[in-house]
Amino acid sequence: MHKQMNPSDDELIDRAIRGDPSAYRLLLSKYKTFAFSIALKIAKNREDAEEVVQDSFCKAFKSLRGFNRSGKFSTWFYRIVFNTALTKIRNKRLLMGSLQQFPEPQYEFDIPDDYLNGFERLVQQDRSAMLSKALAILDESENLMITLYYTGENTITEIESITGWNPSTIKTRLFRARQKLYIELSKMVPNPNELL
């Protein structure tokens, strides 16, 4: 009997509870990228975000037996990431008095062997740079909403479970974030819908 190629979260959780290290690794690899995105939106610092994700996985794995299977594992886990990141920045504010500034994104503009593919990559990097610049004008909660809703493809209900905010607050923040993005992108390009 061979191992199933794509085990469900429930199967991985059962295996992890029984002490199977490969199940822990599979859960980690499945959710670490988006968890890092959430942590980075809140912590605004790569090192802090990495620490938040690591702490969150430790907390999640210690509490795995208490996970209520009525909801999705991802929603439960991202809630842990959200709360851990908030605690991290609160503690940092107490220690330092203020948060560090959002780091400037680094872009490499190598001249590729294949000019057309390279040109397309440059156009994509240019779009990414404009979107990053526009996203930087959003406040933390609006930026997080965009990440959870569009990048993470979470529903309003799932975002409510992750953040603890009520649905009308979430919808308002999403609406405001989209408006701000559109206005900011309108200053940079004639048709901002092409970037979104």
Write the layout of secondary structure elements.
Blueprint: H1 9-17, H2 21-43, H3 46-62, H4 73-96, H5 115-135, H6 140-151, H7 156-163, H8 167-188
Helix pairs in contact: 1-2, 2-3, 2-4, 2-6, 3-4, 4-7, 5-8, 6-8
Number of strands: 0
CATH class call of the largest domain: Mainly Alpha
Strand content: under 5%
Task: Compute the number of helices.
Answer: 8
| Spatial gap, N to C terminus | 46 Å
Which percent range fits the helix content? 55-70%
User: Considering the protein shown, what is the CATH homologous superfamily of the largest domain?
Assistant: RNA polymerase sigma factor, region 2, helix turn helix motif
| Shape type | elongated
- Outline the biggest β-sheet: none
Number of domains: 2
Q: Order of SSEs, N→C?
A: HHHHHHHH
Report what the structure shows.
There is one protein chain. The chain is an all-alpha fold. The chain has two domains: 100 residues, Rna Polymerase Sigma Factor, Chain: A (Orthogonal Bundle); 93 residues, Arc Repressor Mutant, subunit A. It has eight helices and no strands. About 12% of the residues have low confidence.
Question: What is the structure about, briefly put?
Answer:
The protein has 196 residues and is an all-alpha fold. It folds into two domains: 1-100, Rna Polymerase Sigma Factor, Chain: A (Orthogonal Bundle), CATH 1.10.1740.10; 104-196, Arc Repressor Mutant, subunit A, CATH 1.10.10. The protein has eight helices and no strands.
